[in-house]
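Q: Hi! First time doing this. I have a protein sequence and I read that you can turn it into a structure. Is that right? Here it is:
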Amino acid sequence: MHELGVVLNMLDTLDAAAKRYGVSRIASVSVDVGEMTGIVPVYMHGVWPEAVNGTICAGSELYLSLIHISEPTRPLYIS
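A: Yes, that's right. Below is the predicted 3D structure, encoded as C-alpha cells:
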C-alpha cells in the first residue's frame, strides 16, 4: 500500500507551502489522481485521518478526482 507514502509526501509539501505563505490551518485538500498511478482512492481516504492527525491538515477533508486516460488521438496505419 503506497498510498500512505503518497499522503505523507503530500503532507510534507503542504506543510512547506503553508509555512511559506503564512497559513495556519488547511481545511481541505483536493487532488487529481491519474488512473495509471495505481493509487486506490479508498485506501488514501482510509489513511488520511490518521496521517493528518497532529499536522496543519488535522481535521481536514480529502477530495480525490480520478482522471481517466483516453485513447491516443494518433492515426492508425495498417500495412
